[in-house]
Amino acid sequence: MLIDWDSDHYREQIAAAVHGGAAGEETLLAAWADGAGDMGGFLLAALGEATGPGGQALLRRLVMDPAAEPDDRCAALVALAKRAGADASDVLGDALLDPDGDIRDYALIAMSCVGDDRAVGHVHALLAMELADPDRQRLLLAIQSLVIPMATYLLRHATTAAEQDELAALIRANRDRLGRAEREWFTVYWPAAVDESESGIHADTADMVAWQPLLRTLYPR
């Protein structure tokens, strides 16, 4: 049965499909194939939390298809990260080099939460360039920051205390180029990155990942 988009209960129908195992996933895939229009984002987000044999393949194809709608590619990217975790790193890593800036940004955020270490060098270079920009935008909300997911990703894959300290020192040296929201975020989640007196306290990367709103569960079981 396809999702009845004209019903007042289509959200409940989607939730039921997410929790419905392989049969539920098939409902979501059939609704996508039928053409969901503006509702496609709901289906892709649902596929990120569904279970079954076919959902991941669709999400991978969408992310890698430059002809697909950018919004759909971004939604599929997040959904794939939520569903496949580190196993999505190949697609996420490639998406960091996508010509579309939005795809690159979403890939960075997803990579920061679940990605393996294949992009450490690339992300470190991105962070250094971002922090070196004297005219970088001072963002009003922490969720808008790319420095935060860059730092989260790099800290997740720092293998020694010395690497963690070096990363904190890089951010600290450019503290004046951080926006207020970014400084406040680091004060809570990684104080050593903005205050050298806190250098003996190492951040909990699990907390940093859990903070990221983009990958939060939409259909809890």
The secondary-structure element order is HHHHHHHHHHHH
- The proportion of strand residues reads under 5%
Low-confidence stretches: none
Tally of alpha and pi helices: 12
Tell me about the biggest sheet?
A: none
| Rg computed from alpha carbons, rounded to a whole number of angstroms | 19 Å
Structural class by helix and strand composition? mainly alpha
Number of strands: 0
Q: What would the average pLDDT be, to the nearest integer?
A: 93
End-to-end Cα distance, whole Å, is: 22 Å
Gross morphology: elongated
Proportion in helices: 55-70%
Secondary-structure topology with pairs:
Layout: H1 10-18, H2 21-34, H3 40-47, H4 55-64, H5 70-84, H6 89-95, H7 101-114, H8 120-132, H9 147-156, H10 161-173, H11 180-189, H12 205-211
